[in-house]
Design a protein that fits this description.
2 copies of one chain form a homodimer. With 384 residues, chain A is of the alpha/beta class. In chain A, 34% of the residues lie in helices and 15% in strands. Chain A contains 10 helices and 14 strands. In chain A, helix 1 packs across helix 2 and helix 3 packs antiparallel against helix 7.
Chain lengths: 384, 384
């Protein structure tokens, strides 16, 4: 059974909004005059308020991580296969919190919110936000929810970077951190892909220097290109071969520039559907947060020193065919954490699914998450 | 000394034009009513007319492979480091021919030529041309030059695909073939990158369905994006790290969307300069020729059977950090050629320069080319 009534689903969930009235100082030197965070929770917070897990989203994710917002939704939250009763992030044991990050386009304060100073949409004037800004705003949400210390902070890709930042920024507030398909910082190639994506959006004539909403248009072409390009980096070459090979959509070459190969059709579809649900200014902000993430920078590039503040127990997970954040990037993390004195488990998962693997069910992967979190949960019981 | 007077330069060269008046039947089922090929030659054809080497260009190359067209040119031909007196492709020994391919934008018949049937520019109506079409047109040029059999056909990347096609299409007319940084066909990922590049060009509002020239505009934004994306695939991740790392252009983050990291600056510069010298419709045609190249297709995907017709001796060269056409793609070629009964030398060159390595001087690489061609030359002497 699939759907909100399935016994392993968190069921119907209602997003909520957390309003923070005080200004938030940002890394860029500007401040947000108050903000909203859209969030969802699954499971129940225990009496000791010790069983909360914060799930952080990646580039295009949001607060809707699990369950269904309406009975007739076409699909559940983005990590529904992993979060629910009896699932690896087990809502029978844990209280799960997921929020849409600042700068997002799913209900949290971002480019589509009103800038109180001008009464207009923020649009391109929304400040550049960093992973650290997100973590600080998430901590204010945790305060609001009465969570002093998370049992775990977990995320894949950019979400994993947030989990890592939590352990540095608030060492005392994170019992464990799950860093999945992440990296300690982007490579020049990663930044290059982001730059082409941004250039595609910003050079779309419908971008209007970010004020497209006020013009009643959307830079569809640019955002679509950005997403198509993203998808190339999310899939492995092997998976593309396996899924699409050189298959022709109509069985033969048409000697024209219409879609011919199945892979073209797949990418265009991914691009087209994305444009309907995502905002271009948010895409720009998310890629900048990725580019800027570099906790070692304040320590002369010494990642181990940067991570020495952490007190959490770590689980680092990498996928064999991920070439966006390859396993060697995860091993950099593991090495630096070890050197910095942290307890780290490392799982290298054999998977053909590329970077996308962090979002897909996989017995070994889910087994590792489950085992790690079972241990975290057992310690909560002992502590209680 | 660098420049046309350098003793190892072929010096000042004047491009010529070959006019073929008869129609050329193309793979797409259409025919070109006559065509021009722009070409250059370096060195002297010997009395036996046996020492000619055809050099085939890659996606963005042209007929100007070596030497200088004018004394004040900023740079020489695209493979000048490899072609000249005493260089690996030694013009003291060989007569080198290089032409701009059909569909090109450097003087051969292409989208910017007049379609005699309409009196207008071909533009987007120029037929899709394949690697086989190119090889057939190059054979007509060879006829014109009185070259019955090439001592070698050589090329890197898409140029290597042409060299391979020569050995299948005209087995008796190729003594040896140099396939450098090539592949027997594109992977789904290769096609995906091409598709995003095409989409970038075709979705530029200045593209006007390919009739931009008649509108007096150029789809600069799209072509620039295509080139930036191309460059990511030409460089290795390691080289990017080494050349650009995460270096900031102004030493610190500017918390905005201007160019910040050195890699961004490099890519934008590459994109901007390309737009001034290359044509968007040609870019589309070249990527399609890449996508379509698949000599095994007519043999139920059996590459060895496809290559069994070949009579040439082969040199296959791959570069360790090339991820566009990785060494394993070259080994596919080597294996199929062996199975098909050909004589093959294979050189795996250790290089940090990614796919671009085929254009760059490298002692091991150039030594291999030199040794292989010396042997080809020695055989010519024996045969004479």
């Amino acid at each position: 059974m699939v759907g909100p009534l399935s016994p392993d689903s968190v069921g119907l969930v209602e997003p909520r909004s957390f309003r923070h009235e005080q200004p938030l100082a940002l890394d860029c030197g500007r401040e947000l005059p108050g903000f909203d965070l859209k969030y969802e929770t699954y499971g129940s917070l225990n009496a000791a308020r010790s069983n909360a897990i914060l799930v952080c989203h990646a580039l295009s994710g949001d607060h809707h991580a699990a369950g269904w917002n309406a009975p007739d939704d076409k699909r559940p939250g983005w990590w529904d296969n992993c979060i629910g009763p009896g699932k690896p992030i087990d809502t029978d044991k844990f209280f799960v919190v997921a929020c849409n990050n600042l700068g997002g386009c799913a209900g949290s304060t971002g480019p589509n919110s009103i800038n109180p100073a001008t009464g207009r949409l923020w649009g391109p004037d929304f400040p550049i936000v960093t992973v650290r800004d997100w973590v600080r705003s998430q901590a204010l949400l945790a305060d609001h929810l009465g969570i002093e210390r998370f049992a775990a902070v977990a995320g894949g890709s950019l979400g994993g970077m947030q989990a890592l930042q939590w352990t540095i920024e608030f060492p005392g507030r994170v019992r464990s951190a799950l860093l999945i398909a992440a990296a300690p910082r982007l490579s020049a190639q990663n930044i290059a892909f982001n730059e082409v994506a941004r250039k595609a959006i910003m050079s779309d004539p419908d971008f209007h220097e970010g004020r497209y909403a006020e013009q009643g248009v959307v830079p569809r072409r640019g955002l679509m290109l950005a997403r198509m390009l993203g998808h190339i980096t999310y899939l492995s070459d092997g998976l593309m071969r396996q899924k699409f090979g050189r298959e022709l959509r109509e069985g033969k070459l048409n000697f024209g520039f219409d879609v011919e190969f199945q892979i073209e059709s797949y990418l265009r579809h991914q691009g087209e559907t994305f444009v309907d649900r995502f905002d271009a200014n948010t895409y720009l902000l998310m890629t900048k947060a990725l580019d800027y993430f570099d906790p070692a920078a304040e320590y002369d590039g010494d990642l181990a020193r940067a991570l020495a503040r952490a007190q959490a127990r770590f689980l680092v997970v990498a996928f064999s065919s991920d070439w966006r954040f390859a396993p060697e990037r995860s091993r950099e993390l593991v090495k630096a954490l070890h050197t910095g004195g942290s307890a780290v488990s490392y799982a290298a998962i054999d998977s053909p699914d590329g970077h996308d693997a962090f979002l897909l069910p996989n017995e070994h992967y889910f087994g590792v998450l489950r085992a790690f979190l079972n241990r975290v949960h057992a310690e909560l019981e002992v502590a209680a």
